[in-house]
Design a protein that fits this description.
The structure holds three protein chains of three kinds.
Chain A (H helix, E strand, L loop, with lengths): L1 H22 L3 H21 L3 H26 L11 H24 L1 H8 L11 H10 L2 H22 L4
Helix pairs in contact in A: 1-2, 2-3, 4-5
Chain B lengths: L5 H21 L3 H26 L3 H31 L13
Helix pairs in contact in B: 1-2, 2-3
Chain C lengths: L1 H4 L2 H17 L5 H26 L9 E11 L2 E9 L1 H24 L6 H20 L3 H19 L6 H32 L4 H10 L10 H16 L8 H4 L5 H10 L4 H8 L1 H5 L2 H22 L5 H21 L3 H28 L17 H15 L5 H15 L5 H26 L17 H16 L14 H11 L27 H9 L2 H19 L3 H8 L1 H8 L4 H49 L6 H25 L2
Antiparallel strand pairs in C: 1-2
Helix pairs in contact in C: 2-3, 2-5, 3-4, 3-5, 4-5, 4-11, 4-16, 4-20, 5-6, 6-7, 6-11, 7-9, 9-12, 9-14, 11-16, 14-15, 14-19, 15-16, 15-18, 15-19, 16-17, 16-18, 16-20, 16-21, 17-19, 17-20, 18-19, 19-23
Classes of the chains: A mainly alpha, B mainly alpha, C mainly alpha.
């Protein structure tokens, strides 16, 4: 009972946050609503038994990336959005496309074998979760190379951001 | 305890992804577009975690881990570029950055 | 047997002269150029003399002597060799061609002395002699055709020699194109001959023909078709009706060209060809009738036009057309030797007439209109006397060369085995007209008052390089007929006997042909018994002579006794006069019927519609389609990031749907 309730509340919050994100005029509103979405998703991860991921989501994603976004918004003094209208394709096809995609995916996922299989038996979500310990072991054994590669990636990104944002002297 | 079917999570993921796509296409502020992209990434993350749970494997979670790392790196560099463009164009409207036309 | 084994030398010498003069002679002195040219043709003539000597030593079964030099074309069963043959007919033609050519070359050295392009003239002239000799010496139809086309080419080059003159190049084109029409039929005839006989060699063809029976007047078979097709080629080349229109225009060329090509040699190629193909023609009575009729009609028709022409060379041109008609008349009634005889005498007197005309024009400083001449006989005596002799010859006055040949033809037409009274009558009237207009020419040019300004034109006799050939030809115009005089007229009939093997070898053996004109005297049987003197008197008082004398008297009456009469006559018969004076408007008719529609189609249909519209349209059109497509596609690069993002989304959606559809199918 509780999980369902929790699920729907978080799902609703996530969707609401997403809608506010795309509807808001001020970027800062969008940023804050995105934080809300991430929070809701973190709870959902907890529901799914992925505690480590939930924690990483909060700490890194909501805590660092979104803060970065807010900093940039404040730095650039981003005001309300201009109302230009130069892309015909976007105006004409954008919304219908998105809805169509959404419907299609939802339909297939809900009706397809994947969804059915998972929903009904073998893949049903149990309350038991995957332990952090197992995750870290996997990271440092099977996925060691990607792990190290991403650290280099972060280094590169760091350097890149540094160089790009430096003012020319 | 009743179990939440994985398909629910998947539908939610699809909805969020679709909303993110709408945002990318329709918004004109570069930063907002960026945030919509982040939203899409998050939606995908949710799907991965749901599948990881469904198959009782942790490969999905590892992938989510990497996605978050890459998203962070991408956000950093991307925002740096946005800052540079803004300094050049004095506007955050993505349609104003249209010099690469024929 | 020096020459017989190397027949090609006869042709090669003029070719060498042409090559030397043409390729290297641009800056050579005139004396060197004309030495090479005259020398090569004269050497050729000497080779011909030597050839005659060797030929006389051959036995009858070695004739015709064939020299096969190399295989020219082999394509399956079609095989043509470059082969040359010599028989009596060839000897006659060779003599005429080389001798008259030599004289004309010598004459040209004087006539063209002040003209530009000296080396080019002699080069072309030598080249012409080469092709003419190829034509005459050829042992098969294809080698003959090479010569046939080659002389046409040289004619075109020489007519348009003064190529900066518009009328000259038009005349050259007209000559070439008109003869081309005939050549087309000639080619079809050659193809048909090959298809029928399997070979183009004369000897092979004639052996095959000898196996075939004669065709009758009622039924035209393949022999008739071949004969008529070949004859159409001759119509073009030898300027008969209806393809004669190029010859008068060809007078645009220098006068030596008119003398050599358009009087003595090239235009006689058709006559030679029919004579050469006599086994085929003899077996196709319809074709013979066609030949004789066309010949007689042309003889008469051209003579009527010649009556009123005022340009001295044009009169001679129409006279040539007319005389060629006589030759064909002779061939068409079976008197092959008579036709060739007339060819020979015509070469002498017509060549002489043209050269004299050239001399007159040279003396008058370029004037060609007879209305502006007159009273020249005291001032250019050599030219006058030689021209007078030639006129006597062409008119058929007894004793001169033309009398014998023309008389023989008319006799064959009137009372030979293939006689045709209507054609005889046409020929007879034509002879009278010939006499009339030729004497008219003499009287207008040399007699009467001077109709030109004495001070503007300095009349002077031509240099000896020009007058010596005139005198030689005059001599031949008188005596050239004697040695070949037919038996009928008291002569030795040597010519007929000499050519007899050529025309009898493959003659059809049907009854009509026995004792025919092919063998000699074409008289009515009753005459043979009479004595020589009686025959002579009979011949001299025959119809051809009567009309010739009548023509002379009429010309004298109208142009010397009462010179104001012609104008009055013209006035009273205004419409006929106008029609004949304008050559029956034939050129205008041809222009409207053939030339103008062709030009119209070329210009408006083929050029504007097809070339510019269709072809250019396709090419330009494909280019503009490419350009248009490119410019539309270019607009995709709008620079608008949102558009790009939308395209990406579109692609992603499509892909996702595809994937999910495929996955969804696996239920």
């Amino acid at each position: 009972m509780v999980p369902f309730f929790l699920f729907f509340v978080c799902a609703l919050l996530a969707v609401a946050g997403a809608i506010v994100l795309i509807v808001a005029w001020e970027p800062i509103h969008s940023a804050l609503s995105l934080v809300l979405v991430m929070m809701a998703l973190a709870v959902l991860y907890l529901l799914l038994g992925a505690e480590f991921i939930a924690a990483v989501q909060i700490i890194v994603y909501a805590g660092a990336v979104m803060v970065l976004f807010v900093f940039v918004i404040m730095l650039l003094n981003a005001g309300s959005e201009e109302r230009t209208n130069w892309s015909k394709l976007a105006k004409v096809a954008g919304l219908p496309l998105a809805f169509f995609f959404l419907l299609a995916v939802a339909h297939f996922l809900s009706r397809s074998a994947v969804g059915a299989n998972i929903a009904n038996g073998a893949g049903a979500v149990s309350n038991a979760g995957v332990s952090t310990r197992a995750l870290s072991v996997a990271l440092f054994q099977q996925y060691l190379f990607p792990f190290e590669a991403t650290s280099i990636l972060i280094l590169i990104a760091l350097l890149g951001a540094l160089i790009l944002a430096r003012k020319d002297e | 305890m009743s179990v939440i079917p994985v398909s629910y999570y998947l539908v939610l993921s699809a909805v969020l992804f679709g909303l993110g796509m709408v945002g990318v296409v329709f918004k004109r502020n570069i930063i907002t577009i960026f945030m919509s992209i982040e939203l899409m990434l998050n939606a995908v993350n949710l799907a991965f975690v749901a599948f990881a749970r469904a198959h009782n494997q942790l490969d999905g979670l590892v992938f989510v881990f990497f996605v978050i790392v890459v998203a962070a790196a991408e956000a950093a560099v991307g925002l740096a570029i946005v800052i540079m463009i803004t300094q050049n164009r004095q506007s955050l409207n993505v349609e104003r950055a249209n010099l690469l036309k024929f | 047997m020096l020459i017989l084994d190397h027949l090609w030398i006869i042709m090669a010498l003029p070719l060498l002269g042409a090559a030397l003069n043409g390729l290297l002679g641009k800056n050579w002195p005139k004396s060197l150029i004309n030495s090479i040219a005259i020398g090569s043709v004269s050497l050729s003539f000497l080779c011909v003399l030597e050839l005659i000597r060797e030929f006389a030593q051959l036995s009858a079964d070695q004739i015709p002597w064939i020299g096969n030099y190399f295989t020219w074309i082999t394509a399956g069963s079609f095989r043509v060799d470059f082969a040359l043959q010599v028989d009596q007919l060839t000897i006659v033609m060779l003599l005429v061609v080389t001798f008259v050519s030599s004289l004309v070359h010598i004459y040209s050295a004087g006539y063209m002395a002040h003209e530009g392009g000296y080396y080019r003239f002699f080069s072309y002239l030598n080249l012409f002699v080469f092709f003419m000799l190829t034509l005459v010496l050829g042992a098969n139809l294809l080698v003959m055709f090479v010569g046939w086309e080659g002389v046409g080419l040289c004619s075109y080059l020489l007519i348009g020699f003064w190529f900066l003159k518009q009328s000259a190049i038009s005349a050259g084109k007209k000559a070439f194109i008109t003869t081309r029409l005939g050549d087309y039929a000639f080619t079809v005839g050659i193809l048909l001959a090959f298809w029928t006989f399997g070979s183009l060699n004369f000897q092979d063809m004639f052996k095959s023909v000898a196996q075939m029976s004669s065709e009758t007047m009622a039924h035209a078979g393949v022999l008739t078709t071949i004969a008529i097709l070949l004859f159409i080629g001759a119509i073009g080349k030898s300027a008969q009706i209806p393809l004669y229109v190029w010859l008068p225009d060809a007078m645009e060329g220098p006068t030596p060209v008119s003398a050599l090509i358009h009087a003595a040699t090239m235009v006689t190629a058709g006559v030679y060809m029919v004579a050469r193909m006599n086994p085929v023609f003899s077996r196709a009575p319809i074709a013979m009738l066609v030949v004789a009729t066309v010949g007689a009609l042309t003889a008469f028709y051209a003579a009527t036009i010649g009556l009123l022409q005022t340009d001295i060379k044009k009169v001679l041109a129409y006279s040539t057309v007319s005389q060629l008609g006589y030759m064909f008349l002779g061939l068409g009634v079976g008197a092959y030797a008579a036709g060739i005889f007339h060819l020979m005498t015509h070469a002498f007197f017509k060549g002489l007439l043209f050269l004299c005309a050239g001399s007159v024009i040279h003396a008058m400083g370029g004037e060609q209109d007879m209305r502006n001449m007159g009273g020249l006989r005291k001032q250019i005596p050599i030219t006058y006397w030689t021209m007078f002799i030639a006129t006597l010859a062409i008119a058929g006055i007894p004793g001169f060369a033309g009398f014998f040949s023309k008389d023989e033809i008319l006799d064959a037409a009137g009372s030979g085995p293939h006689k045709n009274i209507l054609l005889w009558a046409l020929g007879l009237i034509g002879a009278g007209l010939t006499s009339f207009y030729m004497f008219r020419l003499i009287f207008l040019t040399f007699f009467g008052h001077e109709r030109f300004d004495h001070h503007k034109v300095h009349v002077h006799e031509s240099p000896s390089s020009m007058t010596v050939p005139l005198m030689v030809l005059a001599f031949l115009s008188i005596f050239g007929g004697w040695f070949a005089a037919p038996h009928l007229l008291g002569g030795t009939d040597y010519f007929e006997k000499f050519l007899h093997p050529v025309f009898a070898a493959y003659a059809p053996t049907a009854g009509i042909e026995q004792g025919a004109s092919l063998a000699g005297s074409a008289g009515a049987s009753g005459e043979i018994a009479q004595s020589g003197a009686m025959e002579l008197i009979h011949a001299i008082t025959g119809p051809p002579v009567i009309v010739a004398v009548l023509g002379l008297l009429l010309a004298w009456w109208l142009y010397i006794k009462k010179p104001e009469l012609p104008a009055k006559l013209a006035e009273s018969m205004r419409t006929p006069y106008k029609i004949i004076y304008n050559k029956y408007y034939v050129d205008e008719i041809y222009n409207a019927l053939f030339v103008a529609p062709l030009l119209f189609i070329s210009r408006y249909v083929l050029w504007h519609v097809i070339d510019e519209g269709l072809i250019d349209g396709i090419v330009n059109g494909s280019a503009s389609v490419a350009r248009a497509t490119g410019s539309r596609l270019r607009e995709l690069q709008s620079g608008n990031a949102r558009s790009y993002a939308s395209w990406v989304v579109l692609g992603a959606v499509g892909f996702a749907v595809l994937l999910l559809a495929m996955l969804g199918v696996r239920h």
